[in-house]
Amino acid sequence: MLLSLTNTPRDYAWGSTTLLAGLEGRPPASGPEAEVWFGDHPGDPADVQGDGTLDAVTGGELPYLLKLLAAASPLSIQVHPTREQARAGWEREAALDADDPTRNYRDDNHKPELIVALSDRFESLSGLRPVPDTLRLLDALDGGAGVAALVERLSQPGDVLRDVIGWLLSGDAQVEVDDIIASVRAAADSDAGEWTTTLRAVSAISETYPGDPGVVVALLMNHVVLRRGEGIFLRAGLLHAYISGLGVEIMAASDNVLRGGLTPKRIDVAELLSILDTTTGEVPVLRPVEVGAVTEYEVPVDDFALRRVALDGQDLPIEVAGPTMVLATDGRVAVRSDSDVERTVPVGTAVFATADETRLTLSGVGEAFVASPGHGTSARAK
């Protein structure tokens, strides 16, 4: 069975008035449009055309959540728990009301995720930079007591990044934070060599969040720029924040987020630090391997798999296993199955195929993303 899905964009403040509108070929929105959820998560299940919401069909058992994400300004710096951490946190908070402001865990699931750029440029902060590299970056700043204090703390032994992030978010380092941000802004106005692009990105973030300790946390992170079609996988525990751009995002079906700055929302520093993975290094960009009209993105989890399909007017049959979604992102796309009639998929909407379907035929001229439970893929990370 095939079901047509839509949803209302969520109006988070960081959303764009133009990115989703431009994708769908409509005038700019009157307010921010941040995310469109295609899934059965109780936080915002997708609407089934003509009949209720998707959770009534799946029983809330879909293992993944597919989204369109449109960022005009930075999202909060955040981290997601492992499955074990989520279950423990959910149990600890069992007595709290669902809307209790002190609640950290919205469900008992982990939240690994993959973002694939739809815009020509998609900026993110992904993972923690090796400390020696960050010390070299700090050398590009014009000194100051705050910079000196950060250098000293980064030069200590032990789990230094966990300690530094805890210090920055404690509320006791505001003088140093302000001094570091001023130094970043000054350096961004000049040529800082290899760090120019990163410093300009962090300086721009400081314009949106002046005085926020998260700006200095951002200075510790890898600045990653994706081109259209490129993706990045974010494992549990990895600190990250999307800065700007339009993308297709898929994740395990969860809404568990621990924040670490760049937000007016509550930050539970102790809980954030307890699940933070301080392993450093670049997060590989996934540059998909094209096999005919289909490209795939390799992820090391079983919750989800994602394929990009380019349609050139010829029918394209694809094998599927488990509940599957086809999200149209360009042109004219249609889907039919062996047991159901053809469904047109307007750009910005999706078709859901129930688990009894084993083959879908896509047609039209355009682009679509096919989401399904996890399986082996053939992407290459460089």
Automatic annotation (TrEMBL):
GO terms for cellular component: cytosol. Zn(2+) binds at Q78, H80, E113, H240. Binds 1 zinc ion per subunit. InterPro entries: Man6P_Isoase-1 (IPR001250), Mannose-6-P_Isomerase (IPR016305), Pmannose_isomerase-type1_CS (IPR018050), PMI_typeI_cat (IPR046457), RmlC-like_jellyroll (IPR014710), RmlC_Cupin_sf (IPR011051). Residues 2-130 form the Phosphomannose isomerase type I catalytic domain. Its EC number is 5.3.1.8. Keywords: Isomerase, Metal-binding, Zinc. GO terms for molecular function: mannose-6-phosphate isomerase activity; zinc ion binding. It is an enzyme of class 5 (isomerase). Residues 88-107 are annotated as: Disordered. GO terms for biological process: carbohydrate metabolic process; GDP-mannose biosynthetic process. It catalyses: D-mannose 6-phosphate = D-fructose 6-phosphate. The active site is at R259. Its cofactor is Zn(2+). The keyword ATP-binding does not apply. PANTHER family: MANNOSE-6-PHOSPHATE ISOMERASE (PTHR10309:SF0). Belongs to the mannose-6-phosphate isomerase type 1 family. This is mannose-6-phosphate isomerase. It comes from Microbacterium hydrocarbonoxydans. The lineage of its organism: Bacteria, Bacillati, Actinomycetota, Actinomycetes, Micrococcales.
